[in-house]
Design brief:
alpha/beta, eight-stranded parallel sheet, 10 strands, globular
Length: 342
């Protein structure tokens, strides 16, 4: 990973510093780029909130090979991790890789490791075209995320995603705040309940609504027919000063339990972070920036290496906390939340 990160730092110079700890401090306000919007408070909050949780360490047990497998939306996963949809290599990552090279690395690396990648959307059109091509090449083993466009454009992209073999489609409704799209004269908008219900019914496949930060929006997504939600503030890139996803997740997960799966992203960097989010109520997690760094630094091999690192970390923390399987987490896995220390 050191070599992969070194290469990524060189290729992404001016767009991402590939910091030792990806916490949003050095890149605050760098949108376009890989930073957080405005002061970067939302990005930083995601990382800080996870850091406030600590593990109870337990070593008197016989667990040496914990079970990391999970099933979400009918997907059998080697661990409950999905690569978040990120696109725009040219204006967010430096353009030293093509969009096709990048997204193919994400999709193939995830498929080969038994997890699931996601493709992004945006302007120009080659972003979604590269994503759909990668989905087709992977036999449909990826989730196609589409921005909340209006009418004909949205319908056309959903049809193209299905034509590429995608059996799961997502909409990142939080993209309504993306500066990059506004600068390109192609803003997207929020969706009222009835319109969202119409979109999901018309899609005719499993549908994920991403960008949920309140219980109200979680319930509305379920009422609209969503098959899963993603608790997300878009990596802190669409609204300054939102709560951290780890802070809003527990109440949302408790409310939606037994209704639809709850996925979460935001500040997840390690296998330990994955386990923390599961302990806070998530069924699975999405990880964004670290996958981008891995793909830029080592293409498919880089993605594979990052996933291997994640799994090793996850298994280690499961052993150290006496967690035999992700299907049955210890009730006292996490220590009571501690104050954040700078």
């Amino acid at each position: 990973m050191k070599e992969i990160r070194k290469t990524a730092r060189e290729l992404m110079a001016g767009f991402c510093r590939v910091c030792p700890v990806c916490n949003g401090r050095a890149c605050a306000g760098e949108v376009p780029g890989m930073g957080g919007l405005g002061t970067g408070a939302s990005f930083m909050a995601n990382v800080q909130a996870l850091a406030r949780h600590a593990f109870n360490m337990r070593l008197i047990h016989d667990i040496t090979e914990p079970d990391t497998r999970a099933e979400v939306l009918g997907l059998k996963l080697s661990m409950p991790v999905l690569a978040a949809p990120i696109g725009g290599v040219a204006f967010n990552m430096g353009g030293k890789r093509t969009e096709q090279e990048y997204i193919t690395a994400i999709v193939e690396g995830c498929r080969n490791a038994g997890i699931m990648g996601s493709t992004g959307d945006g302007v120009p059109s080659f972003i979604h075209e590269a994503g759909f091509a990668a989905i087709a090449a992977a036999g449909g083993r990826a989730i196609a995320f589409i921005k909340p466009w209006e009418n004909a454009e949205l319908d056309e992209k959903i049809d193209k995603a299905k034509g590429a073999g995608a059996s799961i489609i997502g909409m990142d409704i939080d993209a309504a705040g993306l500066i990059t799209l506004r600068k390109m004269g192609r803003p997207v908008s929020p969706k009222p309940l009835e319109k969202l219900r119409e979109i999901i019914a018309k899609a005719g496949v499993k549908f994920i609504v991403k960008g949920i930060m309140t219980i109200d929006d979680a319930m509305l997504s379920w009422q609209a027919g969503a098959h899963a939600i993603v608790v997300s503030n878009h990596g802190g890139r669409v609204l300054d000063h939102t709560p951290a996803t780890a802070d809003v997740l527990p109440k949302i997960a408790k409310k939606m339990k037994g209704k639809i799966p709850v996925i979460v992203d935001g500040g997840i960097r390690t296998g330990g972070d994955v386990l923390k989010m599961l302990a806070l109520g998530a069924d699975a997690v999405m990880i964004g920036r670290p996958f981008s760094v891995a793909a830029m630094g080592g293409l498919t091999e880089g993605v594979a290496k990052y996933i291997e690192t994640l799994r090793t970390e996850l298994m280690q923390v499961m052993v150290m906390t006496g967690t035999r399987s992700l299907k049955e987490l210890p009730s006292d896995l996490l220590v009571q939340e501690r104050p954040f220390q700078k």
